[in-house]
Amino acid sequence: MRSATELAALLRNRQVSAREVVDAHLDRIERLNPAINAIVTLDPDGARAAADAADAAVAAGEKVGPLHGLPVAHKDTHATGGMRTTWGSPLHVDTVPASDELVVSRLKAAGAIRLGKTNVPEFAAGSHTVNPVFGTTHNPYRRGLSAGGSSGGAAAALAAGLVPVAEGGDMGGSLRNPAAFCNVVGLRPTPGRVPTWPSAMGWSPMQVQGPMGRTVADVALQLSVLAGPDSRVPIALQDDGAGFAASLPVELPGLRVAWAPNLGGRIPVDPVITAVLTSTVQVVQDLGAKVEEDCPDLSDADEVFRTLRAWIFEASLGDVVRRSPDKVKATIRWNAELGAALTGGDVARAEIAHTRLYERVIAFFDRFDVLLAPTTQVLPFPVDCEYPTEVAGVPQRDYLGWMRSCTLISPTGCPALSVPGGFSPDGLPVGLQIIGPPGADRRVLEVGHAIEQATGHGQHRPVLPFPEAA
């Protein structure tokens, strides 16, 4: 299973054709996807036609993009022109957008070839990929366990080798959580690094889009084409993205690293995860970094995240919930109803706390270059469970509780990368979260690449097909 960067080089040098690469992935999808259910919409004829056009362009000596010929499947919450986008909801089962949204069009402009769409939870709510339109996505490392979410279809497709590149979105961990569950790499970029358009709440830094891949270099390659300014997006960063594709280091001399195994005592974590990641953190020290246990003051991060999330749910889904309550899952109704009950004072207090949280985090990164923490608090759980109600013996009050290893980081404005951190004794993936100061996306990629190369955890791919599906 070659990485995207390896395939891109072979395609550029005409050692393989785009048609060969697309056909190989379509064959793998046909054989493996029925048991995993990662890709839910497929356009083989369109993909083959695009591949033939890509090969013709190379033969004619035309300039091609960095992702030339690489198959991609887009998250089913990202609008794709001429291909249905359902958001995992019965309300949109027949919705076919007229045009691509920005993250899709940038991948296409870079030469990626659209195969189809990846599965999501209903309206991308919750970190377990199941919906009433397409059903459940299974973890490629063990059928019957969750692939995480909301970009669970993307993570599972990558882990199973159904596509070499994929993208997703992240408000409370939707790029990081499934990456950890499926032993791939997912980056929540600094807000504005990857502009989101169209967006009804363009000033909000909470919901971001970003790349996923099997390696950190693959994620960096995608970021090089996804990042960059867009005048329609008010928080878009002005830096050109091309530099993200530069080579990445394999050592970390002098790096100042904080290790927060439970985010300063704020979250319970499965002891198995802590044990696995403690060994990985030792590898970071062996690479030349100075590691000490510390954590920024994340006071009020819960209040900020929950208030602003509820506000966004009311703004984006409140009318849907009121109009069709029977066609929206209970957790979405609950979250939108919380938003509807907010007052102006509630939102103002959350924004004040948000500002103070950001200031404290900035001060913390005066002393440290990166923060390491668990990506998830639990191992992949059974697919018939909507969400874990207990973590390490601690009851969780709602469907957001078990995700706090990610949700507490989201409102900080920091880039956060999940990389393979090891495996539990019975072979389930564990993710390590690498968090940098706002704007330091390149730094977290560098650290993630060095860890990836030293540990080799990401090279351990799942054994497929599943024994019961063979």
From TrEMBL:
Q: Which SUPFAM superfamilies match?
A: Amidase signature (AS) enzymes
Annotated Amidase domain ranges read: 20-445
What would you give as a GO molecular function for this chain, any one? amidase activity
Q: Which domain of life is it from?
A: Bacteria
Listed A to Z, the keywords are: Hydrolase
Checking Pfam families in the record gives:
Amidase
InterPro entries noted in UniProt: Amidase, Amidase_CS, Amidase_dom, AS_sf
Q: EC number(s) on record?
A: 3.5.1.4
- Transmembrane segment boundaries: none
UniProt-listed PANTHER family: INDOLEACETAMIDE HYDROLASE, TRANSAMIDASE
| Name of the protein described by the UniProt record | Amidase
Species for this entry: Blastococcus saxobsidens (strain DD2)
